[in-house]
Amino acid sequence: MSVSIRFDAKELERSLKKLGSAKAQEILARSAFAGGEVTAEEIMRRAPDSGIGRNSPDKSVRGKHYPGKLSKDVIVKQAKITARGVLVRVVSLPFYTRFVEFGTSNQAANPYVRRASRSARPKANDKFIEGVRNMVQDAFR
C-alpha cells in the first residue's frame, strides 16, 4: 500500500536540492514513514476483534474486548524513494488478513484495511508534509 501525497512542492523542491540528494532522501523517507504510522494506527483501530468473550459462558470473560492478532500485527515497512515518488508499505502480518479483507465462499468480506487506509490518507499526508517542513527547517538552522 502506498501513501499518495499531493501538494504544491516547488519551494520544497528548491529547499531539498540545496540540502543535497542523500539528506533530501532521508527527510522524505522519514516523513513518509511517519505518515505510514498514521495509516497503521488506523488499521489497528479498525481491525475486527477476536470475538473471544462476546458470548462466552464464562462470566469473567463475557463482554470484554480482546483485540486479537489482526489489530496487533500491523507494521510499517521502510519507506523507499522511487522514480514515481515515496513508497511506504503498511503490512498486516497474519496470513488470514486477506480472508477477512476480501471474504471467502463461506464468509462475507470485511474490508477494514481499505477503509482505514482511505480514511487515514488526509492525516497521513498532513503528517508527511509536517515532517518534511520541520526537518527541512531543522537542516537549515
List the helices and strands and how they pair.
Blueprint: H1 10-19, H2 21-46, H3 69-72, E1 74-76, E2 80-82, E3 85-87, E4 90-92, H4 97-102, H5 112-139
Keywords:
141 residues, 5 helices, elongated
End-to-end gap: 34 Å
Approximately how much beta-strand content do the residues carry? 5-15%
Number of domains: 1
Radius of gyration: 19 Å
Strand order in the largest sheet: 1-4
- The structure class reads mainly alpha
Mean pLDDT: 78
**Sheet of most strands:** 2 strands, antiparallel
Helix content: 40-55%
* Total of helices: 5
Brief account:
With 141 residues, this protein is mainly alpha-helical. It has one domain (10-139). The chain has 5 helices and 4 strands; from the N terminus they run H-H-H-E-E-E-E-H-H.
